[in-house]
């Protein structure tokens, strides 16, 4: 239980560092949070795949939404800023830890995603000065729909990599 609480606290500290610090030196806190997380997990290979997959998939999704005009960072750009991409990395550290309880049944992840996802974006947008050109409620509704589908999928990534790791351990033990 203390590790789960520490995981949630590290995530939140990283979130604040990203949103308040932008692309500045506060992002080093994200590196510390990820390093601590990796020290605590026993399956680095599986967790590393999960972190990378969520980071890339989430960054691609948000960059896609940016290019659709859902977000406005005040300057022309095709990719999201580093601070927003690192939030995906931080989220990945929670899937097998403090958010593991939402993996089953799947609707827990959908419900949490539909509620917490848009609220996190809204708070981040307000703090970081990110515009929502389609309007606040329209954007939050779109994000709720996306996150209701997305969080169960991310838990599926976590389960897949965890299963691959467990299979490789069983294979090594039987040889």
TrEMBL record:
TM ranges: 80-99, 111-134, 140-161
Zinc as UniProt keyword: no
A Pfam cross-reference name: DUF2878
Keywords noted in UniProt: Membrane, Transmembrane, Transmembrane helix
Highest rank taxon of the organism: Bacteria
Protein name, entry field: DUF2878 domain-containing protein
Organism this protein belongs to: Pseudomonas aestuarii
